[in-house]
Amino acid sequence: PFVSLKKELDSVFEYLEMEQLRFGDKLRFEFIDQSNVNLDSVKVPSMLIQPFVENAIKHGILVQDNGGSLTIKVEEEPENILVFIQDDGPGIDREAAKKRKETSESAMSAIQKRLDIIQSLKQDGARLNVVSSDKGVTIKLTFKKSKS
């Protein structure tokens, strides 16, 4: 259930490269690593980041006439590793999201439940924070650093 953050990000970048072939100039992305941590040493739940990237492409980037940009950034705090997934789309339409939720469980809700389970098992699992504005959506995942 856990993989290195490097392996998780490598998988996400392979996915992004395939999507860029599919959508061309409509999809632009970049990776910024502002941490001093060996990403191989950070363990994260597998397939955690990609659903957020997929949502950003579908609901944030492709809905714009000229496409948009996606940034994945890794930062470091004294006890945590932070992963940000940010798009420059129109933000989350709360009313549309509410209607979708009435008919099916949202991806974010399912991931939050998964994180809650992982946190209860590990006692130091990941946390999720979502910020939406008219300038896009930012997903912030917080992972505890491994104790060496």
Descriptive report:
It is a single chain. By secondary structure, this protein is of the alpha+beta class. Helices cover 39% and strands 31% of the residues. Strands 2-4-5-7-6 form a five-stranded mixed beta sheet, with helices on one face. A two-stranded antiparallel sheet has the order 1-3. Strand 6 (127-133) and strand 7 form a beta hairpin. The two termini are 21 Å apart.
Name the overall outline: globular
Strand content: 25-35%
Class of secondary structure makeup = alpha+beta
N-C termini distance: 21 Å
Helix-strand topology string? EHEEHEEHHEE
Averaged pLDDT, please? Answer: 83
Share of residues in helices: 25-40%
In short:
The chain is of the alpha+beta class. It is 39% helix and 31% strand.
Question: What layout of secondary structure does this protein have?
Answer:
Elements: E1 2-4, H1 5-23, E2 27-33, E3 43-45, H2 50-61, E4 68-76, E5 80-87, H3 94-103, H4 107-122, E6 127-133, E7 136-144
Parallel strand pairs: 2-4
Antiparallel strand pairs: 1-3, 4-5, 5-7, 6-7
Quickly list its features.
alpha+beta; two-stranded antiparallel sheet; 4 helices; globular
